[in-house]
Amino acid sequence: MLEAARPIVLAGKPAPIDQRGRLSAIAKAPLAGPWHLTYTGLVGDEQADLKNHGGREKAIHQYPFDHYSDWADEIGPHPLLGAKGAFGENLSTSGWTEHNVHIGDIVRFGSALLQVSQGRQPCWKLNARFDRRDMSALTQARGRTGWYYRVLEEGDAKEHTPLELVERRQESWPLSRLTRLLYVDTRHYDELREMAQIPELAEGWRKLATRRIETRATEDWAPRLTGET
Is the pLDDT of residue 229 over 90? Predict the structure, then answer.
């Protein structure tokens, strides 16, 4: 089971991210507590693209600081890797990764109650942020995506408040399994049927699994990964 972890809490506001002037709030900086978490996110944090970010199923984003050293080994020194918040995360922790966090995990943060709803689907904004054309594709391929929470109970947390796992509902579904199924073993239809029946999984991801089963086709990731339409 997961040991309690004390997160760094981060927030950001929309700002131009590329030469086309497209906006993003992916640049996050530490936010001093206390913090208030609502059904739609962390108070003090904003999103530029409400169609693909934020909302009930993607209210809070957590990313493992454990991955930063892996990224430095892979892409070399990068100024963004010197501080937490490089990947647009609201919660930065060590010790919690896609291998030991499971879909549906219920987590207590102060008086707020959170539930892991889905993994992150990397998009082109990571390319712009890191000034690398392949950063979103690498994030997807390596499975270093982080994950989202829905907020089951709104509440408050103070400085040094830990994240604590209070219930695990899907013992056989770590996020790493979902990521592998979505992006590597994309035609394992028996597993996709199981995935589509996970009640704690975000509806969009359950529909994705069902659609892939019905069409026998893997969706085109290029628009999301490149930002080119």
Answer: no
